[in-house]
Amino acid sequence: MSVFTPLARPELETFLAPYGLGRLLDFQGIAAGSENTNFFISLEQGEFVLTLVERGPVQEMPFFIELLDVLHDANLPVPYALRTTDGVALRELAGKPALLQPRLAGKHIKDANAQHCAQVGELLAHLHLATQANMIKRKTDRGLDWMLEEGTQFLSHLNAEQSDLLQRALEEITQQKTKILALPRANIHADLFRDNAMFEGTHLTGLIDFYNACSGPMLYDVAIALNDWCSDEQGQLDGARARALLGAYAALRPFTAAEAELWPTMLRVACVRFWLSRLIAAESFAGQDVLIHDPMEFQLRLAQRQKVDTPLPFAL
Ligand SMILES: Nc1ncnc2c1ncn2[C@@H]1O[C@H](COP(=O)(O)OP(=O)(O)O)[C@@H](O)[C@H]1O
Ligand SMILES: N[C@@H](CCOP(=O)(O)O)C(=O)O
After folding, report:
1. ipTM for this prediction
2. How far apart are CA 217 and CA 181, in angstroms?
């Protein structure tokens, strides 16, 4: 399980007191998640999630706090950093940056249908529209240059079939990089997988885990989401789910001609991003008690995306 930093009740009580939310009733480490330590926290005044930031861009916490405030103010269903009675959002616990957020209702779904996908498309468009005009700049640490650098290094760790597939994708990224970076931008979630959305039945109750969020091409966010929400076991896109997600998104933010042209490329780029991060995690955390996602899933998806039969809904 991924509780990297266990906590004892007395230190938690001391940490939670300045929020003025009543006594600590219960707390529980959350096994899901692979980056940070999370706890469900029951206080007299409600249910919360405590996050201790373990890895990644710790110095950029103010960006995440500001972005979630913007999205919360736009009435989007996202967690956000609660303030202590003195107005402090970012705190420290056990030597780690720590945030307390409201706990969103619902649970993750494994088997998505077209109705789930339509809601994901709709919420993703709202997220982009809420930030497009006043985007908060943050360069991702897993962008195209990272893919080219890490991917090139990883080629020698792969078998012939895998390295051909990756090599071809890296060449495409090199060729299309300028065009990709010129696509319309906003703040993007950049990790909208099924395990980062909460549902009650078919109602989407919220998005979590914004620690990959950045400024970037909106189409990249759509491709990341679609690759997870609309793929079958063999990595193939399910047409009905894909059309539902894309149609709901485009109804709020129509795609541009440049986005339609780069769509198949973007689906492949989004596969490379997660294939590589999973390969790296599998090597770095081998044998440790950390949740590791299967890299093969993205190898299959990338292989299937060599041909894309679901075009972007785009009207001239
Ligand atoms: N605000 C929240 N409301 C409800 N559940 C949450 C919230 N934040 C995290 N969780 C739960 O904690 C789990 C791990 O959180 P996540 O942010 O995905 O961790 P990680 O950054 O380590 O991948 C989620 O799968 C979800 O069940
Ligand atoms: N959703 C991702 C995990 C998060 O990506 P990371 O780069 O922050 O580790 C996946 O399923 O691989």
Report:
1. 0.95
2. 7
